[in-house]
UniProtKB/TrEMBL annotation:
<dbReference type="InterPro" id="IPR018060">
    <property type="entry name" value="HTH_AraC"/>
</dbReference>
<dbReference type="InterPro" id="IPR029062">
    <property type="entry name" value="Class_I_gatase-like"/>
</dbReference>
<feature type="domain" description="HTH araC/xylS-type">
    <location>
        <begin position="221"/>
        <end position="319"/>
    </location>
</feature>
<dbReference type="InterPro" id="IPR052158">
    <property type="entry name" value="INH-QAR"/>
</dbReference>
<keyword id="KW-0238">DNA-binding</keyword>
<dbReference type="InterPro" id="IPR009057">
    <property type="entry name" value="Homeodomain-like_sf"/>
</dbReference>
<keyword id="KW-0804">Transcription</keyword>
<keyword id="KW-0805">Transcription regulation</keyword>
<dbReference type="Pfam" id="PF12833">
    <property type="entry name" value="HTH_18"/>
</dbReference>
<dbReference type="InterPro" id="IPR018062">
    <property type="entry name" value="HTH_AraC-typ_CS"/>
</dbReference>
<dbReference type="InterPro" id="IPR002818">
    <property type="entry name" value="DJ-1/PfpI"/>
</dbReference>
<protein>
    <submittedName>
        <fullName>AraC family transcriptional regulator</fullName>
    </submittedName>
</protein>
<dbReference type="Pfam" id="PF01965">
    <property type="entry name" value="DJ-1_PfpI"/>
</dbReference>
Length: 329
């Protein structure tokens, strides 16, 4: 589900105990000027209850440039994770987050930042995710939260939560992608030398013994590369399995263990991403976009856009198409 407005004013909520890594991720996504590459001029503000420097782990410090009152002006509020996941957030922070949610301001948390939102009561009765190693702790300390273990990030009632560490990057780029388009998110991702999105769930990262055969994913990587290079062609699990030299059942099991998702779900995700890029960067008719990305028909592509992006291909193009599209080819 997309945020209703395209956020350019981003509030980073700071208080003693927040993780330096998460602060850096938020700053890297929204605090770097990339307007020369077509990225909107984001305005990231470091907000806190007091304007005094905040000590971070590793000998670092963070100096707020706004008080929590600035949250009333923010289009999006982002809460970093915590070094100690049971760190109590200051009462002014919790109250400011409650007021922001009451105003319908989107709020996102990275990793253990879900504990802060739970302290504020914002996750009561809602689905949320955190690092897979912290899900039991979150459930125990906040039993009214519907904790999910395997997602990279989740959305529920204008609140976003994400799994551990790198999943915070995934969520930040996803928020950019759903509000400013896939090309803007890809530009930021390229400058960060990271993937614009990852498929699957954090189930692929949970510690558990795996057979040695599952650790060698070269064959599956080659199959995925082939599918990406031939998106317009119809693909079936049986056909992909044959290319990998496996039975369909074995292929599906190995694929999910490696990527955290099923072959068909992965393929749909790739087709949606390719269609987004074509809708943004070309003036190809929507039916042709559907053909080139393997959906076959505009109707099928429209159904998947509605399910995964809460919009239609035509509305997506109206919102995100670049001013100058290259010639058809």
């Amino acid at each position: 589900m997309a945020i209703s407005t395209a956020p350019t004013r981003i509030a980073l909520v700071c208080f003693p105990g927040v993780r330096a890594f998460d602060v850096s991720v938020i700053t890297e996504v929204w605090g770097v000027d990339r307007t020369d590459r077509g990225v909107p001029p984001f305005h990231l503000r470091r907000t806190a209850a007091e304007p005094t420097p905040i000590a971070l782990r590793g000998g670092l410090s963070l100096t707020p440039d706004r008080t929590l009152a600035w949250l009333a002006r923010a289009d999006l509020i982002v809460v970093p994770g915590l070094d100690d996941h049971v760190t109590p957030a200051p009462a002014p922070v919790l109250e400011a987050l409650r007021r922001a949610h009451a105003r319908a301001t989107p709020i996102a948390s990275l990793c253990g930042g879900a504990f802060t939102l739970a302290q504020a009561g914002l996750l009561d009765g809602r689905r949320a995710v955190t690092h897979w190693n912290l899900t039991d702790l979150l459930s125990t300390r906040h039993p009214r939260v519907k904790v999910t273990q395997d997602a990279l990030f989740l959305h529920d009632d204008n609140i976003w939560t994400s799994a551990g560490t790198a999943a915070g990057i995934d969520l930040c780029l996803h928020l950019v992608r759903t509000t400013h388009g896939a090309e803007i998110a890809a530009t930021i991702a390229r400058s960060m030398v990271t993937a614009p999105f990852r498929t699957g769930t954090q189930a692929q990262f949970i510690e558990h013994p795996t057979p040695r055969a599952d650790r060698d994913a070269d064959t599956l990587a080659a199959v995925r590369a082939h599918a990406l290079a031939h998106l317009a062609e119809p693909h079936t699990v049986a056909g992909l399995a044959a290319r990998a030299g496996m039975s369909p059942r074995s292929f599906a099991r190995h694929f999910q263990a490696t990527t955290g998702t099923t072959p068909l779900r992965w393929l749909i995700t790739q087709r949606i991403a390719a269609a987004q890029k074509l809708l943004e960067r070309t003036d190809l008719p929507v039916p042709e976009v559907a053909r080139r990305t393997g959906f076959g028909s505009e109707v099928t592509m429209r159904q998947h856009f509605a399910t995964h992006l809460s919009t239609s291909p035509r509305d997506y193009r109206l919102a995100f198409q670049q001013d100058q599209a290259p010639a058809r080819g």
